[in-house]
Write a structure and sequence with these properties.
The chain has about 150 residues and is α+β, with helices and mostly antiparallel strands. It has 2 domains: about 1-30; about 30-150, Jelly Rolls, CATH 2.60.120. It has helices at about 1-30, 50-55, 135-140, and strands spanning about 30-35, 40-45, 70-75, 90-95, 100-105, 125-135, 150. The longest helix has 27 residues, at about 1-30.
Length: about 150
């Protein structure tokens, strides 16, 4: 009987340690991908969970050492983006199946605003992915609706 109780205790202890590890791993380790857009190879972070999508690039001083961040969504919608806790301007690019469907160049930061007061940037048509890159990237690379982003293997 005592061995069974010890097993339950150790099992519970291991479970708690693994849960804590995964909790912190998700917050500090972001998955990455390499994509190509307009002939440029971009190393990007992937916001693949609700936590990562809500955090986005907020409270960072720059995108570096990456070239951007992608937000893959499971469904088509006019996904809204806000500049919550942003410290630098960005270009927001909406994609549908890897094709640029809309973009907002040089979106300014909004210091001093509270949640609910931020401007919500939405595409004109539905998308399934959002790419955020440094402000000016779209203009510098002559980004156009219809340009394709591909995954580099």
């Amino acid at each position: 009987m005592k061995k069974v109780n010890n097993f339950k205790f150790y099992f519970f202890l291991v479970f708690i340690v693994v849960a804590i590890f995964l909790f912190f791993w998700q917050r500090f380790h972001w998955p990455t991908a390499t994509v190509s857009l307009k002939g440029e190879t971009l190393e990007i972070m992937v916001a693949d969970s609700i936590y990562r999508q809500q955090k986005g690039l907020g409270k960072r001083d720059s995108i570096e050492p990456y070239d951007g961040m992608v937000f893959p969504f499971g469904l088509l919608d006019k996904h809204g983006i806000v500049m919550l806790d942003m410290r630098f301007p960005i270009d927001i690019i909406w994609l549908k199946k890897g094709e640029v469907v809309d973009f907002a160049p040089t979106v300014a930061i909004e210091p001093g605003k509270q949640e609910g007061e931020y401007i919500i940037y939405r595409p004109r048509i539905e998308s399934d992915m959002v790419l955020e890159v440094p402000a000016g990237w779209a203009k510098e690379h002559d980004l156009k609706i219809g340009d394709k982003m591909t995954l580099v293997e």
